[in-house]
Amino acid sequence: AELIKKTSLMLWDEAHMAKKHCFMTLNKSLGDILRFTTENSDEKPFGGMTVVLGGDFRQIVPILTKGKI
Fold it and tell me: In terms of DSSP H, where are the helices of the chain?
């Protein structure tokens, strides 16, 4: 937690491959950790920390429900 408090930018590569629960967990965790250093951190996305989400969105396979190509 002390290291996260000192961090000003978080980079998340291949974010498009993560499930929404990963984002929700990071959001809640950063809000809890940064609540002592950042005002209203529990109301800000990711506790007010800058988070850069990256990855190659061309790698995502399209999903076709009962579809044929």
Answer: 2-6, 20-33
**Structural contact between residues 48 and 41, judged by C-beta atoms closer than 8 angstroms:** yes
CB 51 within 8 A of CB 10: yes
Q: Which residues contact 9 (CB under 8 A, 6 or more apart)?
A: 49, 50, 51, 52
- H or E segment and range at residue 3: helix 2-6
Q: Record the pTM.
A: 0.74
Rounded to the nearest 5 degrees, what angle is found at the Cα of 59, between the Cα atoms of 26 and 66? 100
Question: Where in the chain are the domains?
Answer: 2-59
Per-residue pLDDT band for 59 (boundaries 50, 70, 90) equals confident
